[in-house]
What does this fold into?
Amino acid sequence: MIGTEVVIQAQGLFKRYGKLEAVRGIDLEIHAGEIFGFLGPNGAGKSTTISILCTLLKPTAGSAQVAGIDVAHDPARVRQRIGLVFQDPSLDDQLTGRENLEFHAWIYSVPAALRRQRIDQMLDLLQLSDRAGSQVRTYSGGMKRRLEIARGMLHQPQILFLDEPTLGLDPQTRRNIWTHLNDLRARTGVTIFMTTHYMDEAEYCDRIGIIDRGQIVALGTPDQLKAMVGGDVVTMTSTQPEAAAGEIQQLLGVTPAAENGSLRMEVPDGKAFVPRLVRELTVPVDTISLRRPSLDDVFLKLTGRAIRDEEAGTKDQMRAMASRWMGRRR
Amino acid sequence: MSVKAQVATPGPIAAPLAPVDTRLASLRAIYIIWYRDLLRYWRDRWRLVASLAQPLLFLIVFGSGLSSSLGRGTIFGSSTGFSYIQFMYPGIIGMAILFTAIFGAMSIVWDREFGFLKEVLVAPIDRSSVAIGKALGGTTQAMIQGLILLVLAPFVGVKLSLLTVLAMVPLAAVLAFGLSSFGVMLASMMKSLQGFQVVMNFLMMPMFFLSGALFPLTGLPGWMTVLTRIDPASYGIDPLRRVVLSDSGLPSAVIDRLGLTINGQVLAIPLEAGVMLAFGAVMLGIAVVMFQRRD
It folds into this structure.
């Protein structure tokens, strides 16, 4: 599925807003047909990077080629070759789904002979055919997103860029969007570049770049990244966490990290470690859990911080509230 | 031999669309932006009906009221056989055009607020097509909105010949174009809906009051004479009135007295239309530059 052709290339991308350095030297190489996920907390530089690649922002330094075209030299040609799905809604919800697609086909110069056929295909592919004649204001959040994806694919782009495409959607709808993205890639061979701060979603990607404070701190397949954690994650709670931590260090040679009142350890072989832990500790143990590392653990290991999901949570809620209001106001 | 079934799946990405002629692409973009505006206008029929309410209110209440109290005046009344409501009628057509044009064009601000503008601005087209398409969309809506009021002519005692109606179409278009372009220019400078109220109160209402829609622009105080001549709408409403009144059998000396003059000189209709067109072109030019500058 994934070709050898490089469709996105970036060298030393740098973006400064006044004193703030949003992106600090990003190098990337994305292959044709890949699903690439850009993962990081809010404000890490994801959106800035994607905006530079989509020619919506000019980098302060560095260069990038998308579909073989330099983004700084010929933005119009790049835009013809890419599809965009923005973080915020950008549909005309007084028009029908089909009319939104027709508008797009016209401003992207889809040849007249292909217009109808492409629109029908995309509506079909994103399962919107039966609602294509309804005004978009009657669509659910997931349908609007799907329509935006259909629109982004309408002019046969080589690369589809999605900025937080699942933000504010419920888990079931998020999974549904992912099914559609995978299906799109399988049927058309399009390269997908997306940003997300949902760790679970990053697992669907072929490769992930973890970005923090404007720099890529890790790049690889989900499995490669998880292997960086070095084995399994064991978490335990105790009524005497300090004493337990001391004993673990002394008797087992592992340095636990205190986290939300529990102790967290990364060990090469968790199944063998847990019995030893129970046997050797003299302080009382309340609970022990053992799990395979997740991308959250990778992020924690690389940055020393967890991706703050609560923060995203409130933002999502606000967004959902705002869209409800906007929906009513229109 | 078998007939090949139509392929239902989209073609491979390896066959990209042919390179696009940018000039043609811009024309297509202008067309579809214009078309979308009309589609929305047509779909929003309540707005269409509601927007007729205000001109009707002006004509019926304001017009009838003033007609009777001005009945004994020197210009309007039984001596001339010409009522205030007849005078006001073309002005109200102008008002409908003025409000629709500016509001129609300023829907760009709504598009920005609700995100749709982004879809347009990132498209591989020249930004000038956005401004031009919007200006033409506003022009068409305003023209329709103004010309719909022609059906009221018999009710206000205005006789219209086919020739008059035909002459009014281009004049309404010119006025609509000038004001739509002005609206697009305003919208290109506005970031949020907040500026809307300001535009409404400090630009549109004064433009309406000073345009000669409601009273003749002669014998005014000096400061007001200047302001009425600065108001671009004056140059669009005056020709509409001249054309309408020419059918009502008024002597041309009276028509000239009611019309727009500069230094006592009556302006010819083509000159007024030219002023309006030039105003529109300049406004649109500014809007294009503003759009191309934006991120």
Q: What stands out?
A: Residues 24-68+79-293 of chain B form one domain. The CA atoms of residues 261 and 267 of chain B lie 6 Å apart.
